[in-house]
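ok trying this again, last paste got cut off
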Amino acid sequence: MAEPAAAAEPHSGHAAVPGARIRYSDTGGSEVPIVLQLSTPNTYTKLGRITAPLLIVAGGADLTAPPELMRTWARHAPPHDFAVVPDAGHSLSYERPAEFNRIVLEFLSGR
């Protein structure tokens, strides 16, 4: 397995998860930063064009789109609500449905 890049340029659409590392057995057990592709080069521009109310919900234990990276993504969005569901992973609506539904319903009701 190829080792992910140690860092990526911000415009590349890749971001290293701050402090997050993964250990690969086929690299002699060395740890490398987790690098994720969360956007294409023009995602931030597209986010800035959203005119509808926006809710961004992150799972506190999401390794695919961690809260730190979702906050970075959200900084490029228009005014929005942001919530983190603690101890939920990437499938937070399945893992913590009651809390997820409460957050969404509060957003939709304008609270």
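PB: full thing came through this time. The longest helix spans residues 97-108.
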